[in-house]
Design brief:
42% helix, alpha/beta, single chain, binds zinc ion, 304 residues, Arginase, Chain A
Length: 304
């Protein structure tokens, strides 16, 4: 069978949320829309994941927390930390996104790369969510791969502008998962957890510095860690236009970043699973364009 770029889409992106919470969700509709419109992908590339089973979630998250998510019994304080009001549809969405990242692992083993148009919810801890993250999809998928013996060593490359604090904490005592986070030093979370490798960046870090650092570090990590699969969190809140990010990466620099990641992994034949993470530029066209570049570059490098 010929290889295919498989993309998990988020079928219920905006529906769980009341007005006022929908803006950051628009991209989940616009990204597949744009990619289909320009002919970068066809409907054949897209798949809608089902809801992830509790049994799998519980390899990563606490039973009490999962019970509160299912039962809509999160406290007001817990919901405030997450940033969204709880709803059955929102819980379902999180479970579907998580399954999307797991499905992408299987597709990445087959095709080299697979992408989730959502996910990268790296601020979720075992027993709580924060920063718009409820379940940590990459951590759940990593534990799934380890428990099913589909991978022995996993590398998480988190290039969202915010530190992957939940992911770092979840794997602090797990030598089979190497967590690499390159993020804005002065960005949320203000209390950083300890990743296997943290690279905090100064405010105003530009393309040259950013790409040079990544180009030096990533091949070295691939050499030393020899991962069976890499999760790449491709947040576009590194852009200079981002409302929250404090870096000065251009849209072209962001595209070069994706190119560096995919090129090194493709050369070494290491499967790569991508999830979107954040992006909060005021103009949603910029967010969409930067995320679409990740799909375009993946398609180009893997020739899918
Ligand atoms: Zn972010």
């Amino acid at each position: 069978m010929s290889k295919l770029l498989k993309i998990a889409y988020d079928p219920i992106y905006a529906h769980p949320l009341p007005e006022g919470h929908r803006f950051p969700m628009l991209k989940y509709e616009l990204i597949p829309g744009q990619l289909l419109h320009e002919g970068s992908i066809t409907a054949e590339n897209l798949f809608a994941p089902i809801s992830c089973a509790d049994e799998i979630i519980l390899w990563t998250h606490d039973a009490g927390y999962l019970k509160r998510l299912h039962g809509q019994t999160l406290s007001i304080k817990e919901q405030r930390h997450i940033g969204f009001p709880q709803s059955p549809a929102l819980t379902l969405r999180e479970l579907m996104i998580t399954q999307g990242t797991i499905d992408c692992c299987h597709f990445a083993f087959e095709n080299g790369v697979a992408l989730n148009i959502a996910g990268g919810t790296h601020h979720a801890f075992a027993d709580r969510g924060e920063g718009f993250c409820m379940l940590n999809d990459m951590a759940i998928a990593a534990n799934y791969l380890l428990n099913k013996k589909l991978a022995h060593k996993i590398l998480i490359v988190d290039l969202d502008v915010h530190q992957g604090n939940g992911t770092a904490k979840l794997f602090e005592n797990e030598p089979r998962v190497f967590t690499f986070s390159m993020h804005g030093e002065h960005n949320y979370p203000f209390h950083k957890e300890k990743s296997s490798l943290d690279v905090p960046l100064k405010d105003g870090t530009d393309d040259n510095t950013y790409l040079k650092l990544l180009g030096d570090i990533l091949p070295r990590l691939i050499e030393t860690e020899k991962p069976d699969l890499v999760f790449y969190l491709s947040g576009v809140d590194v852009l200079e236009t981002d409302k929250y990010g404090k870096l000065k990466v251009t849209i072209e620099g962001c595209k070069q970043r994706d190119k560096i990641v995919f090129t090194h992994l493709f050369k070494k034949g290491i499967p790569c699973v991508v999830a979107m993470g954040g992006g909060y530029s005021a103009d949603v066209k910029i967010i969409t364009e930067a995320h679409c570049n990740t799909f375009r570059v993946a398609k180009e490098i893997y020739q899918l």
